[in-house]
Structures are given as structure tokens and as C-alpha cells.
Write a structure and sequence with these properties.
The protein is mostly helical. It has 2 helices and no strands.
Length: about 60
């Protein structure tokens, strides 16, 4: 297995990375939103409120 950042062999202490530096580079990419998980259409629909909300019962 190789490090996904630099391609060097993996170190067991930092798996799946070869060093703390590469682990930190990866973390920085997540924190700056360089990596994103794409949303599907269904999940997007759940986050938006309906156009005509149902009337509240009194």
C-alpha cells in the first residue's frame, strides 16, 4: 500500500499515510474543502423546505 498524498510506502503509525506531514496535508485539504462528497438529488430535496407547508392543526 502506498501513501495517497506522495506515493511512498505506508508507515504503520500513520496509516494510510507515510508520515504525519502527509496526514496533515490530507486534513488540510478536508478543512479547506478541497475534498467534497457529492450530494445526490434526494438529499438536496430533504434540505429544502416544501413550497406549500401543510397547515398547522389548532
Amino acid at each position: 500500500m502506498t501513501c495517497p498524498i506522495c506515493g511512498k510506502p505506508v508507515a504503520s503509525d500513520y496509516r494510510p499515510f507515510c508520515s504525519r506531514r502527509c496526514a496533515d496535508v490530507d486534513l488540510g485539504r478536508w478543512l479547506t474543502e478541497s475534498y467534497r462528497i457529492p450530494a445526490t438529488g434526494e438529499e438536496d430535496a430533504e434540505d429544502t423546505p416544501p413550497d406549500d407547508p401543510a397547515p398547522k392543526a389548532h
